[in-house]
Design goal:
Elements: H1 6-9, H2 20-23, H3 36-44, H4 53-57, H5 64-72, H6 76-84, H7 90-96, H8 100-104, H9 106-111, H10 117-130, E1 146-150, H11 154-165, E2 169-174, H12 182-185, H13 194-206, E3 210-213, H14 219-229, E4 232-235, E5 255-257, H15 258-269, E6 286-290, H16 294-305, E7 310-315, H17 342-345, E8 349-352, E9 354-362, E10 365-377, E11 386-389, E12 394-397, E13 400-403, E14 419-421, H18 424-427, H19 432-450
Parallel strand pairs: 1-2, 1-4, 2-3, 4-14, 5-13, 6-7, 6-13, 7-8
Antiparallel strand pairs: 9-10, 10-11, 10-12
Helix pairs in contact: 3-5, 5-6, 6-10, 7-10, 11-19, 15-16
Length: 452
């Protein structure tokens, strides 16, 4: 460690966001960057803490102290090699990861100013691309065995990448017109520019991975054909079924799943055209987002950029603890505290403990939503608290409702022993970094299975 006192002398400095009045008029990335001198200063704050809880907290096992030290010393290529040794796609996590490592950082415990690991990841990777440190690996020796990967989301891409480097001939089947999964069709461009995905995909293709788009693979096809045609099959289809809200009026025009809006907007930015009746637009409308997570936040930011009149976000669960510490989930665990995203900063009414009773409409079109304030009481029998009515029903004016309440964990039939499941398809909806870690892990299991 080059500067053992840096954490005492240099405060945490985040790059911050573009001004609100500027960013809400386009879908460019909202996050700014520091210059190289400031970035190296931030890396110098990573202290020799003895026990790197950041490494423990990261699902990929990133060795932040090592690549932060290399970054501080200006050894950008070494920093990338160390980062890429555990993280296959740091340009993604460097932009959208909630940074479990930072919450587990000893400096977070010390003064709530953890090392800026996530931003450092992005900076290291961009420098690596810029300087040509990242080149396709073409000297892989093939072992004569083939693997089919079903799904080109972060888990599938991570599994395909690992298996390809182990010498397997990898074919990735993707039902959409391009790879990326939720990276491409769920996360807005203002958080992750899709050219970054294309840049990485070009490398994967040059390294020998075959991508077959527009091919939806059924369980029957896996059982009857793919499991016999390929040495192994990796199922990485994610969690395609969104949690619905089946209350009266659900059929009204204007009630949509969050991904209907998000995926369509991303496709429009990619050049795809939709008819006026197909288009989901918040322009000039009052928008209600049901669900308080990251997907709901993405809907808020998208609605603003489409020119909405207002946005309200409601959540059925209680308001999280405010401040940096969570008494129920203490350091070094990730605190479940109130999160205010860049989209929230752009303008949004946020309410908690709100239950949705009915969608209201006129002539088949949504006009409002009947909701009611509720409370949660301890369950005498144990388990999940009981929901009880608290306030009187009220109506929130809305012409568009976006359901952002998470996704259902998929159920799979009995699969052959050479078929493996990873990512959200195995564990239910979770973080991109966990999906990537699962993809790497399943690649190792496939390799062990085929090496017997």
């Amino acid at each position: 460690m080059g500067n053992p006192k840096a954490f005492l002398e240099i405060h945490r400095q985040e790059a911050g966001y573009r001004p609100i009045h500027d960013r809400i008029h386009d879908f460019g990335e909202v996050e700014q960057t520091l210059n190289t001198r400031e970035r190296r200063q931030q890396a110098s704050r990573c202290m020799d803490c003895g026990v790197p809880f950041c490494h423990w907290a990261c699902p990929l096992g990133n060795k932040a102290p090592e690549w932060n030290d290399a970054l501080y010393k200006g050894e950008w290529e070494m920093a990338y090699r160390l980062l890429n040794s555990t993280n296959p796609f740091p340009e993604f996590t460097g932009r959208i990861c909630p940074a479990l490592c930072e919450k587990a950082c000893v400096l977070n415990r010390y003064n709530h100013e953890p090392t800026t690991n996530r931003e450092n990841e992005a900076a290291i990777t961009e420098m690596a691309y810029q300087e040509g440190f990242i080149q396709p690996r073409l000297n892989v020796r093939r072992n004569g065995k083939s693997v089919a990967v079903i799904g080109a989301g972060p888990a599938g891409l991570a599994a395909a990448n690992e298996l390809n480097m182990l010498g397997y001939t990898v074919t990735v089947f993707e039902r959409n017109e391009a790879a990326g999964g939720l990276l491409r069709y769920g996360i807005p461009n203002f958080k992750l520019n899709k050219t970054l995905i294309d840049r990485r995909l070009q490398l994967l293709e040059q390294e020998g991975i075959e991508f077959r788009y527009g091919e939806s693979v059924s369980y029957d096809a896996i059982l009857s054909q793919l499991s016999k045609d390929y040495s192994a099959v990796v199922l990485a289809t994610g969690t395609p079924t969104a949690r619905d809200l089946k209350v009266p009026g659900r059929e009204l025009k204007g009630v949509h799943f969050a991904l209907e809006l998000l995926s369509q907007q991303n496709r429009i930015l990619a050049g795809m055209e939709f008819t006026k009746t197909e288009r989901i637009s918040a322009k000039g409308k009052d928008v209600l987002v049901i669900g308080g997570g990251d997907t709901g936040s993405d809907c808020i930011g998208t609605a603003h950029r489409q020119g909405c009149k207002s946005v309200t976000q409601i959540e059925i669960m209680p308001k999280p603890v405010e401040g940096p510490e969570d008494p129920q989930n203490p350091w070094p665990n990730y605190p479940r505290t109130l999160k205010t995203s860049s989209s929230h900063e752009e303008g949004c009414i946020r309410r908690w403990n709100i239950n949705t009773l009915e969608f209201l409409g006129k002539d088949g079109k949504l006009t409002g939503v009947k909701v009611q304030e509720i409370d949660w009481e301890p369950n005498p029998a144990g388990g999940r608290p009981l929901m009880v009515e608290k306030g009187t029903p009220e109506i929130i004016k809305a012409e568009i409702v976006l359901l952002a309440m998470g996704f259902l964990k998929p159920e799979h039939p009995q699969l052959p022993e050479n078929v493996f499941v990873c990512g959200d398809a195995a564990n239910g909806a979770s973080l991109v970094v966990r999906a990537m870690a699962s993809g790497k892990k399943i690649a190792s299991e496939v390799n062990q299975f085929l090496s017997k």
